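Discussion board: Methods & Data

I've been asked by a reviewer to show the raw model output for two of the constructs in my manuscript, not just the figures. I'm not sure how much to include, so I'm pasting the format here to get opinions. Each protein appears as its amino acid sequence followed by a line of discrete structure tokens. Is this the kind of thing reviewers expect to see in a supplement, or should I convert it first? Here is construct A:
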Amino acid sequence: MIGPMTATLAPTSGRRGLLDGRVLAFATIVISALVLRTAVTSITPLLEELGDEVGFGSVVAGVFGMLPTALFALFGLATPWMIRRLDLEAVAVWAMLLSAAGLIARSLVSDTGLLLLFSAVALGGMGIGNVVIPPLVKRYFSDRVALLSAMYITGVQLGTAIPPLVAVPVAEAAGWRISLGMWALVALAALLPALGLWWSHRREDSRTVAPAPATAQVAAPVTGDDADAGIDADADADAPAIPAPVAEDTGGPLMRTSLAWGMAGMFGMTSLITYSIFTWLPRILTDAGGSAGLGGSMVALFSAMGFISALGAPSLCARVPNPFPVVLVCVAAYLIGFAGLYFAPMTATWVWVVFVGLGPSTFPIALTLINLRTRTHQGSAQLSGFTQGVGYTAACAGPLLFGVLRDATGGWAWPFVLLLVAMAVMTAGSYQATKPRMLEDLW
């Protein structure tokens, strides 16, 4: 079978250097990962100041808190459709373009509605980026999925942790507009290699290879995508080619697979727990007699634990056929941490927070499985969109329900029951998601 040759895809055999022929793809993935949470965590430390300056209260502040998961869900579901219409590389460009435009525009306005609107634009771009990066890894680094997954998940963690640390000092020194707008520079830095990757891919697509005469037909070398699909380059050249399953027009079959729903449950419930802890951990500790400073430092510790899982989970996930036992370790960490925070929140607080922080290791596991459980970048894009779209939709309810249960009962018992229920759903979803099988084989 003879087709267009794409020099930037995975090699036909053996392992080549990490950047050999794919520098633009590497830069696009790594720098884009740094962008994907900046619109969220750069604004939250400044909401009180923005409320005084622009003129909004706690209700609008709550809307800002719900926007990220809502936009991530919406664009998570829409991005696979965009990829089918525009191509993967073009959608990566749009992700960073919208992110940069929204970050710049919201730093220039002085109206609550416009601030929300342009925040939504930035978050929409980042929601697209959430879905685009896994299939980019699959397409260009199918030989190094674990390494690239660890790198981009670490980048997401850095983009989550750094903005809130510098937001207030920069705002005090240069004003809140600079504090918000400066993150557009990172998005613009990611846009440049994304444009180069898109242009390079268009040039490769524009090349045509004349078909060889029937009497001298020779099988073409296997590209990265062909290798993923299991096509044998040594097969009889005269035999009819059997195309690999492709994720075009497969929304219905995708939704009928236990793998897809398992991934969505694993990802969504992990996100629900994580956003609930981010939102309510300070209040849990202050109600127990702790200071506001303690609450802030424990949220920072909870965030920092994400670096451990980001660095270790993808490699571990790639080395074992079924990483469900790792999920069970995460469940045990959750149980220890939740019990400590509920029964003895002011005794060895940091120990409980460390255990709770290890629980969301299922987040990088889920992102890595998107590629490990698909054969092609098309399948990866479909599974990524479904996992994150449905998952973030469910996660939206977490912080809100947690607060409603707290206000309705006057205590923390039922909010913690909510976390236990979410953990149980996450475990059941993980059981399906971690089984060693391929999505395309289930269609």
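Construct B, same format:
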Amino acid sequence: MIAVVYSGSRLADWRLAEKGKIVAGFKTMGINPHHNDATKIEQLLHKSNTLINYAEKIKRIYFFGAGASSAENEEIVSKAFNSFFRFGKVFVGHDMKAAALATCGDHSGLVGIIGSGSNAAYYNGKKVEQNNYGLGYILADEGSANWLGRKLLQDYITQTMPAELVRKFDEKYPLDIKIILDRVYRQANPVLFLSSFSDFVFENREHDYMVQMISRGFTMLFEKYFVPLREKHKEVNVNFTGSVAFDYQDLLAEVAVAHGFKVGIVIREPIHNLLNYYLNKNK
């Protein structure tokens, strides 16, 4: 039996499969070594009855997640998974590798993630080439749910959000500046708080304010990351994974064309393609 896991900051998507068939599919809380040490990750695994039931049967675990971008962070995840899956071999990779495998397979291409966070890279068909783009939810994540949440709260607090949206926001969220600042600067996992406002963005996606904000985020993503990647690799096709990329494909395509790119494959959740990839590898 194999387990394939794709984790964002909010949720981790799991698929367990045996002899080419899915045995179980479910979600847990997100697993991010930036926010969780090995002990906390193992505690999270123990909260899933499905994992407890199948732990000893799983022989290979393929984990991909935000934050697993360094040897140190990979070790945090590996330590927790090796302790829990005592008879399994654990493979840990960054979420960019997952996006590359899910959209490009064993072929080269430009790849982007726009979900809870955002990132960009060139995939040579075997590995994702290293770059300095994965700067996290404070220094980067342009266009992502986290970035949209930040912008939304900034405009709400500074009273630069359109009045009709302020009324809707107040009806939906019992917040004031004190609560917002506490959640962002004092509470754990502020990225989860920030990205949670993506629901409000989606509910009001037809409003000009939202259209402009989303397009601005995508524009920053292309200008900061994809344009430099194209200059080096001469690629114009870009593939994406992530909820924000999927939900706003029309705006993403417009921004891409404006910068001389063409959007190829866009998938919300890479877990399905990842599972198929590893099922083929484990025949």
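Answer (T.O., handling editor elsewhere):
This is acceptable in a supplement if you add a one-line summary per construct. For B, something like: The first strand starts at residue 2 and ends at 7.
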